Amino acid sequence: MAIYYLNEGSFELGDDGVVDVTVHTLDVEAFGTNLRLMVERAPFPGGSLAAFSERGVALLGERLRGYALLGTRESEGATEFCARYLGDDGGASYLRYAHVATSGGVLSFSVTAPIAKRDAGDAFMDEVLASLRFRDGD
Description:
Layout: E1 2-6, E2 9-13, E3 23-30, E4 33-42, H1 49-63, E5 68-75, E6 78-86, E7 92-102, E8 105-114, H2 118-131
Antiparallel strand pairs: 1-2, 3-4, 4-8, 5-6, 6-7, 7-8
């Protein structure tokens, strides 16, 4: 039996056929603006973390209206990219993504902000990544 933990407690799951693709969405007021932080868990399909991130960039390019990749970078154990896109209201939004390898798969962190508050989105993501600590040896 696998034990699944969440903030409020834990529960048991059978070992067969369970793939954890948890998504957490948090709306945060920080650095003088409203930001949205999403944390997504996915299995690592093999290959490199950079290739995993490139697939994510391509998928977002297909899904988001007015999408434009602004930059990419790699660091030890993580790949990052940032982009702009048009939100549902037609206004420009900023997106910064970080894919982090873990022993169990990949954690993807994304922050969205109005494009005019790009610096706030970057500062918040920097804080999130700097404070990231893993349990169980990840």
